[in-house]
Specification:
Number of strands of chain A: 3
Structural class of chain B: alpha/beta
Shape of chain A: elongated
Structural class of chain A: mainly alpha
Oligomer: heterodimer
Strand content of chain B: 15-25%
Distance between the termini of chain A: 74 Å
Strand content of chain A: 5-15%
Helix content of chain B: 40-55%
Strand order of the largest sheet of chain B: 3-4-2-5-1-6-7-8
Radius of gyration of chain B: 17 Å
Strand order of the largest sheet of chain A: 1-3-2
Largest sheet of chain B: 8 strands, mixed
Number of strands of chain B: 8
């Protein structure tokens, strides 16, 4: 009886592991497809990293469409995870994560880790 | 759901301010709690139109981080009857304030956008306002684009003027579309009265020409011009066609009925 239980659990565990791996693979592929589609790899190479670039409306206007959508959403949320942004943009979490990280590299956003979660936010320092 | 409405146009003189004040007053007459914002910092006009007195704080002060939003609101509910509440948040008309606002940098403008977006929490959620109406300055400049980005719905006022038509078309494609804004067009100061009779025909033409829904057609009324921007027209003339057309527009916005 016990042996039967173990033998039935083993393939189930393996299947769960396969499913998790496939999900991870799918996430990575979605990011690669998006990056290739928007040629963001090249854009990113040419984009200088600015330590404190401002995410103002004129900057939003000059952004490529795919990044603008993410940037606009973070403007409204002030602070959010990739998952929260993905809920609003209706795009995959992994895709939003890639775009948010691009915006961090470009100097428009800041990123902060809390436990397993990564929060993205616009740093709006208090004015004198 | 539409809560923040920005009234914008490509050119000046299209009737934005008159439309903003009267649209806000129309919502107030419908029993709503409304606040009108003067975001035309280059040429503030609401201060004079609403005859505001003894201002403690201006919208400028709120955006500069010098006061809370509640301090910059003026209760003008006595100017509009109908059960609602009518507030105004005004731009400082002093020359020094206009000069100060025109010399702001990109960082400040980014901060100002954050302040406008924060109104959703402070006024709509915490203070239970139903509508915020942004009267903007014409064309593509920081204060008006900030207003458009912060708004849920943009009312675009346009006239039959050739330069206005071309500019508006470009602006709709190159600005509103990029920000994915819900937009409604108001054909204002229409001289040919027969146009209003051919509404369906006009609606389709606007949709084809501008690729946006038609919110309303407003004929040119000499009575409005004669008022010299002195009063809230919908309050003073409840049976005037101008008041009725604005009522229809407000209901369309409220019911999200723009097709």
């Amino acid at each position: 009886m016990i042996r039967n239980d173990l033998s039935s659990k083993k393939p189930l565990n393996i299947l769960e592991k396969i499913e998790t791996s496939l999900e991870k693979l799918n996430d990575k592929m979605e990011v690669m497809i998006e990056i290739q589609k928007n040629n963001t790899g090249n854009n990113l190479k040419n984009t200088p990293t600015l330590p404190d670039a401002s995410l103002d409306v004129m900057t939003l206007l000059s952004m490529p469409d795919h990044l603008r959508k993410t940037a606009m959403t973070i403007c409204r949320c002030t602070r959010a995870t990739a998952e929260e942004i993905a809920e609003q943009t209706k795009r995959a979490r992994a895709v939003e994560s890639a775009y948010l990280n691009q915006l961090v590299i470009m100097g428009y956003l800041k990123k902060e880790r809390k436990g397993r979660k990564a929060y993205f936010f616009i740093e709006r320092e208090t004015q004198s | 759901m539409t809560k923040i409405i920005a009234v914008h146009s490509y050119k000046g003189g299209t009737g934005k301010t008159s439309m903003s004040v009267n649209l806000a007053a129309t919502f107030t007459k419908m029993g709503k709690k409304v606040c009108i914002f003067d975001l035309d910092f280059r040429a503030p006009s609401l201060f004079a139109i609403l005859k505001a007195r003894d201002m403690e704080c201006w919208l400028n002060d709120y955006l500069n981080g010098n006061c809370e939003i509640n301090k910059a609101l003026v209760d003008m509910s006595d100017k509009v009857t109908g059960g609602g509440e009518f507030y105004a948040c005004l731009a400082n008309p002093a020359t020094e304030a206009i000069r100060d606002m025109s010399s702001k940098d990109r960082k400040w403008e980014m901060h100002a956008l954050g302040k406008l977006l924060a109104l959703k929490e402070s006024l709509l959620k915490n203070n239970k306002f139903d509508y915020l109406v942004f009267d903007t300055s014409p064309g593509l400049q920081y204060s008006s684009i900030n207003a458009i980005v912060a708004a849920d719905f943009v009312v675009v006022a346009t006239t039959g003027d050739r330069s206005d038509v071309d500019g508006t078309k470009r602006m709709l494609i190159e600005l509103y579309n990029l920000f994915e804004k819900k937009t409604g067009l108001v054909l204002n100061k229409v001289l040919d009265p027969s146009i209003t009779a051919k509404k369906t025909e006009m609606k389709n033409k606007i949709k084809t020409d501008y690729q946006v829904p038609l919110l309303g057609i407003m004929p040119c009324f000499c009575e409005i011009l004669r008022n010299e921007g002195n009063l809230i027209f919908v309050q003073d003339k409840p049976d005037h066609p101008f008041t009725k057309i604005l009522g229809e527009m407000a209901r369309k916005i409220e019911n999200d009925d723009l097709n």
